[in-house]
Design goal:
5-stranded antiparallel sheet, globular, about 400 residues, alpha/beta, binds magnesium ion, 7-stranded parallel sheet
Length: about 400
């Protein structure tokens, strides 16, 4: 089909969270997020850049992503007259880094392309995968619990999610309180899948000290310890993996499919968190998934507190057969009372249905978008011969 790209709109939103959510990266009380709308003669598509409001999880952050999008990424996509999801990464290959922005723009192009073709994202991603397996119809749900002031507060919060049907929790941990926290949750729920995420908090002591500090978790059957050391410390993680019986999972360290291969090869992890934003796109995430599947390395789909757009795309990704562990896949209501797109809902059996509609399979709530938008800019594709480097602000 011949699709004409008319332009790209960037929309910064600020969606209130039901409750503050804290991690080592900071405390979110709203989800400030950069959304992209790509407009074609055949219809439109939406994507979400997973960058947080601050450069504390990775170097990207919302306002930085907006600046790079306006100045470099959007002009390149318009000048190249990009018309499919698979053409986005090659068109943006000249930009170093900015993976979450690239993934958000790719998501919008995939959504537009697949809506026009009447095809769900999960089916498309499964066809892109080398495993040859069809997508699942639903995926097990999981929640990431933020840092809590006390173990009592943590147990109460876990109880509220277990009561809703969640079967897997990921607890944010810091050196010192980890043993008591995990023991308390395990005591109350003997069969729950528990993962822990350190976001690099064990880096100061180094691998040997981290192995000692994490040792008490061994008694409580945690499915994995995510990112104990720094993002750049692949060899430190390999060292730690030899010192501890706990399965080590990497998040921040993995920013490409090739990096996933390397981490597995050097023994830096035995479990992989696949986040499309961090990897630079959903198609790159499929490649990372295929590498894990071929190496029989357990993988799961990570989240970034996304709105319904990124959430729906993550559920589609998580439906691939190589996602053998439950991920950060929660219903919209886990974070939001009112979302900009949806619905992504938890079923009482603890699963989330994979969207079956075309594209992302969720609809934009235009009224909510209008309420939560804090900045919008429209970038038309100009006729050849006119400079296409600056957009109109509205
Ligand atoms: O480290 O996995 C992380 C959210 C924002 C930034 C980093 C991380 C997270 C989460 C996932 O823990 C939360 C979710 O979307 O469920
Ligand atoms: Mg993490």
């Amino acid at each position: 089909m011949n699709r004409e790209l008319a332009g790209i709109e960037l929309v910064k939103v600020e969606v209130p969270l039901r409750r503050p959510w804290s991690s080592a990266a900071g405390t979110l009380t709203t989800r400030e997020s950069l959304l992209a709308r790509v407009v074609f003669s055949t219809g439109e598509g939406w994507g979400e850049c997973a960058a947080l409001p601050w450069p504390t999880y990775s170097p990207e952050y919302t306002d930085g992503a907006m600046a790079v999008a306006e100045r470099y990424a959007v002009p390149a996509l318009l000048a190249g007259s990009v018309s499919s999801g698979s053409a986005v990464a090659p068109a943006l290959g000249f930009l170093k880094g900015h993976n979450m922005l690239k993934a958000g723009l790719e998501m919008a192009f995939l959504d537009a392309e697949l809506r026009a073709a009447g095809k769900p994202l999960a089916v498309h991603l499964a066809r892109c995968s080398a495993t040859g397996q069809p997508p699942a119809g639903s995926v097990p749900a999981g929640v990431s619990i933020g840092l809590k002031a006390s173990t009592g507060e943590l147990v109460d919060e876990v109880a509220s999610f277990v009561d809703l049907g969640y079967r897997r929790v990921k607890l944010k941990i810091l050196p010192g309180s980890e043993g008591e926290m995990v023991a308390a949750v395990r005591r109350r729920w003997p069969g729950l899948t528990i993962m822990v995420d350190a976001n690099g908090a064990y880096a100061p002591g180094g691998p040997a000290r981290a192995a000692e500090q994490l040792a008490p978790l061994g008694a409580h059957g945690v499915a994995c310890v995510e990112q104990p050391l720094s993002a750049g410390d692949l060899l430190g993680h390999a060292h730690l993996a030899r010192l501890t019986p706990l399965p080590i999972c990497l998040d921040e360290s993995l920013t490409s499919a090739a990096g996933v291969s390397l981490a597995i090869e050097v023994g830096a992890c035995s479990v992989v968190n696949i986040k499309a934003g961090r990897l630079g796109g959903y198609l790159e995430a499929v490649k990372a998934h295929d590498i894990c599947a071929a190496a029989s390395v357990p993988a799961w789909c990570g989240g970034m507190v996304e709105t319904g757009l990124g959430r729906a795309a993550n559920v589609a990704l998580a439906s691939l057969s190589g996602f053998t562990l439950p991920g950060d896949i929660s219903g919209s209501s886990r974070f939001f009372d009112c979302d900009v797109a949806g619905p992504v809902e938890l079923s009482p059996d603890g699963t989330v249905a994979v969207p079956s509609g075309p594209g992302l399979g969720v609809e934009m709530d235009v009224a909510a978008l209008g309420r939560f938008a804090t900045a919008r800019s429209w970038h038309p594709r100009l006729p050849t011969g006119l400079a296409a480097s600056s957009g109109q602000r509205s």
